Amino acid sequence: MIQARVLEDRRMLPLPYEEKTQGESPDHQHSIRSIAWNPLGTLVATGSSDKTLRVWNPEKPNVRFSTDLKGHLAAIEKVAFNPVKDAELCSVSNDGVVKFWDVRSKTCTNEIKGLGDAFTLVWAPDGQTLVVGNKADNIFVLSPTRSTPIASHQQPSQTNQIAFCWSGEKIFLTTGEGRTRILTYPDFKPAFQFNVENESKEFTLNGHTSSCLSVELQPTGRYLATGGSDSIISLWDTTDWICQRTITSMIGPSSDCGLGFTFDGNFLVGGSDEGEQNSVVLWRRD
């Protein structure tokens, strides 16, 4: 059984992080597009629409204790720490520039350009490669040590978000058709197929009536959660790929606010940014 609890937005868990610096107007606001913890939970990175990339000490959340990593010339869409290297950070801006940073020395260690209108980024579990997707539905495989992509894979339909399985051998791609594709990595081939009248078809997860926007794998690997613009969250059993639950208590689309499991996989949180009805919903597996 899954129990749902709606949490009031803007009145719960107020974050004391303040990006206003000396000399700025009180009305000046930064829109934070992405936030990420490092593997040890000792640092937080934020990427903003005003090109600001900051690394914070969560124990000292005032801007004067943060590190400003300069170099992006466009809005930062996504930030993510290497899952096996505590001080390696990657950021991507919507002008198609990916930067790798050593947050200890505060330096950019590598840069890759020309990736189009990029908006999503995710590391492979081993930290050796990562993938970046752009709005032209092209996905690039990158290495922190190379200045050009290892490979690129043009997708046949609108691709929204990407997640890895924990072995790193498969990736999950959400699409504008409401499906979630399961592909092998790094060759991007369908992981599962079935036959229809002697014709091989790609097996996909079909759990949404409109665009599938977000995807998250449970830490135990047992369940995969997908969220769509239909205000539905689907929970899939990865042993047989059957949808075990559909959660319909979202107020609006589970979109860029995304999905997230707790470290033990017992709780799932989903966010909605539908107009003035911003909300966070928390579910517990019993």
Automatic annotation (TrEMBL):
Gene3D superfamilies: YVTN repeat-like/Quinoprotein amine dehydrogenase
Keywords assigned by UniProt, alphabetized: Repeat, WD repeat
An annotated GO BP: mRNA export from nucleus
Pfam families found in the cross-reference section: WD40
InterPro entries in the cross-refs: Tex1/THOC3 (IPR040132), WD40/YVTN_repeat-like_dom_sf (IPR015943), WD40_PAC1 (IPR020472), WD40_repeat_CS (IPR019775), WD40_repeat_dom_sf (IPR036322), WD40_rpt (IPR001680)
GO CC term, one of those recorded: THO complex part of transcription export complex
WD repeats: 25-57, 69-111, 205-237
Entry similarity comment: Belongs to the THOC3 family.
Protein known as: THO complex subunit mft1
